[in-house]
Amino acid sequence: MNPILPTLTATGLILLSGCAALKESLTAADKPSATISGLSIQSLGLEQADLLVSLDVTNPNSFSIPASGLTMTMSVEDHALATVNQTDTDLTLSANETTTTQLPISFSYSDLYNAVKAVADQDEVTCQIDTALLFNLPVLGYISLPASYTTTLPIPQRPKISLASASVADLSWRGMELQLTVDVENPNGFGIDLKGLDYQVTAANSALASGSVQPANLEKNSQQQLVIPLSLSFADMASSLMSLLTSKEAVDIGVAGTLDYAPELAIWSPEPLDFSMSTALTR
Fold first, then answer.
1. What is the model's pTM?
2. What whole-number distance in Å separates Cα of residue 45 and Cα of residue 157?
């Protein structure tokens, strides 16, 4: 018999015994756990929302564990809107500690509307975040720590503005009093402060007047009427309005301008809303 064989056999048995012991030790070790502790909105616009997912991972073991990757999916009514796949990560779980990491994820509202048509008329949507943190451990191989979280997110919408009516409030030897009524609607589930409405009024495409309306507040899912009074002398009146005095034909009244507003939602700072609308004026 080859004298080397017993030695190799003994060495192999020792190595196998050591691997078995290591595997038993790792199997007996407490498995880390993962929990999504919250979801915050980093920025919010009319086209896209940027979110931060807070992931808490607890390692109850006396040794640190490096993560090898992660996956994360955001879904609405089983429709995946955004997916993050990282094949490597610098996250390491410290021994006997809970490690918190912030994971960014973004989605576009156009993808949301295309995926779930019903949310187009909603001011908020329920979404689900699913994550899986991946580890490659000796002997045990790859393990995955799943975590899920469900919450609601606002769907911001611009105020809706329309010209409800234009009427002659008074007519005298001094001139004409016009009253324009503007409807401003807040379709959101949060309030909006109207910081100012600047307008220019035309009659049959001829400049008539300009000015601004005092600020107002719109409660959530509410509508308010803003009245624009115009006092015009006969010298200031456009020829189209002069013809209104002697004719029953309607005159096209146009109102264009800018609505500056601030939502009661700190993370959303929209640009002012430009508008242009018209209606018919009859005596």
1. 0.67
2. 9
